[in-house]
Amino acid sequence: MKDLFLIRHAKSSWQDDRLSDQARPLNPRGEQQLQPLARALQRYGALTGEIYASPAVRAQQTLQGILPTTFPNDRVHTDPELYTFDHQRLIQWLQSQDNEVQTLAIVGHNPALLEFAAKLAKQAPFELPTASFIHLRLPIQHWCKVETSKGRLETFLTPRDFSFEAFNRKSPKRLDTSRKGSKEPGPDIPTELLHQTERLRHLERGVMLGLDDEFLHQYRIALRRSRAIVESVADVTGNTSLKHHLSQLKRHAQATSRLRDLHVFRQDLPVLCCDNTELHLQLQHWTERRTAKEQARLAKRLGSRRYRNSLSGWEDELQSRHFRKLIEQLSRKDIRNRVERQLRAFNRKTAELLHNAPDESIHRLRKHLKRIRYLMELDAKNWNSAIKVLRQRQDLYGRFQDLHVQIELVQSFTLNNPGVASTGARELLDKLAQDKSDARRLILSIGGLKSS
Q1: Alpha-helix runs per DSSP H in 13-154
Q2: Domains 171-330 and 331-452 are alike in CATH topology
Q3: Could you give the CA distance from residue 169 to residue 164 in angstroms, rounded to a whole number?
Q4: Which CATH class for the 331-452 domain?
Q5: For 161-183, what is each residue's pLDDT tens digit?
Q6: Contact (Cβ atoms closer than 8 angstroms) between residue 68 and residue 32
Q7: In whole angstroms, what is the distance from residue 401 CA to residue 180 CA?
């Protein structure tokens, strides 16, 4: 078996029409595509064999942008034959390659790459955007047999799959559903919830691939936003018919929590470890192993029939007459009254909070804050200034939660790696504990929230 990776160069510039086609460089967007592309290629094994590139400037810049700094120079090649738009020339070139090479990657041009893929595999894609790649597995021992082989498409990824920035640029934009002069806040809620559900579906592939942490972050925002709106509607109306869907949304969010914690911890490691390179590497390797397991578990869940049925049932509910009638019951007065009751309850619990209260008490207050904020956002125009205050308070409570999780993770690392854990790990735990204690004191000192 042979593995062949066809990589199209990143987006090039047409700004200077005096340049020949070969001399055209990457444009700024093309340069931004390189790091996400490199990450995806490394994950899928494209850089484990020989790499050949066209001599065109845009292909050479792409090549340099995807290679790790330690990549062996003797496995990197530039061949003038790869500056071609004719797939037949690519076939002829590949037929002459060394049969000892099992994995080969080509950085080249369309339409040659795309037509080449279509020649080798029935399932080949119909397009190959810039900075995209195709992985074909060929049932041959000798490259000279490539033209008559029937390859299998293993992977086809575009920037929208491995870069949230690219995904977001191409994703459908949210429509402005606000109704000027509307006396009540309810009519646009079903539209907002349908938008969030559609966003969940669009984000799923990026979440399942796990090549950019931002996909999971945005997926969690869409879930939390949906759940918060529904909780608020149920809270204001007193209706219990949405309990099943709320439970489903909560389970979907909980299934992502551990992976999100690992993402945040991994991102914070350079700051947490400061100049302790050894500890940084130890924690990084440990975190990556944990992350891979959690990523596989979440991907399996999102691919399950049960999950699909849950989302479909939720969409049906949002479009039902029952839900529309429920929304019609919302009024600004009811929302304000409910917010006031929740504020009083929050202030009472805050006043009862002692300096030695368990962490869970602060976590419950953090969740209470979110509920109040989401209630306010049902009628956001009347709560603008209060919402800003709540967000600032949430940042503080969120910092406390992050420190709590980081301490748990470092403790788990030290318990599971007794021979590896160093003095640096103990010092890190002491620092995190002090930061958490400082955050606790600040939370206790600022007290409750002002009522309107």
Answers
A1: 28-43, 57-66, 87-95, 112-120
A2: yes
A3: 8
A4: mainly alpha
A5: 999 999 998 776 655 544 455 55
A6: no
A7: 39
